[in-house]
């Protein structure tokens, strides 16, 4: 618990963006859902307000669903109905350790207790009520939760991308899990990872799990979200037994005050001079000073923030103009690590 940054909901009153806030018990939970079910659950949770009482139903309209997930479906009414029918049968297992015996305890809960459908063709909606056993993990949370903007997952096309993203994001505020600007998750055993994803009986060989689940999710997270992630593998002999994710947050949009957030000064235009001249070098130095000052400012603003990749690329190019091979090599390694 001491590694977790406790955030009080009262500090988030001004937030207007759609934000998914869920207990880490859900993030670490054992469950399997489809892509559309993941979309409904995340959208429903994002609509819960901080003062909503447990048991309050959540309504999702046709327009909200299509706009949030950027999809077109002329048969969405039937699609939402099918999602609801299957979702009410879905369960989630939470894992805890019995303090007296030290044994692992698994508790199975249903996600949804009631679903209401609007059968009218005009104002189509799906209204869900989370079960009493689950609502305490998503209503009026005070601590031990994970929070992210729904916009950062809106382009995901795999339910595993949702699951892995949320699990990685849990570690954003674990101060013991950050070093040199890089965040990292705990190491997790392959069998435990598969159990968490609800695929214990699938992907018998690790290479299929990596290709079919992990790498696809990482690609989507890197392409569409606010995180850049790489996979680390831990072997015993030739077999991968554990993995962990190393990541950086490319932007911090939930808690940042955009008015106070540092902005990079505009870089001067490249002078009309010959290549490898003194004037070209002077221009490169000015640009380096601007970018490195910006990097220092954003780190002072938020210690977890890093230089955006486009600026890092520019910085490498400017040091290349100066002929500083050591800096070029050092920064190129950072760029490669963030892209992989």
From TrEMBL:
Coiled coil: none annotated. Residues 20-168 form the Initiator Rep protein WH1 domain. GO terms for biological process: DNA replication initiation. It comes from the Bacteria. One of its GO terms (molecular function) is DNA-directed DNA polymerase activity. Pfam families: Rep3_C, Rep3_N. Belongs to the initiator RepB protein family. This is Plasmid replication protein. The lineage of its organism: Bacteria, Pseudomonadati, Pseudomonadota, Gammaproteobacteria, Enterobacterales.
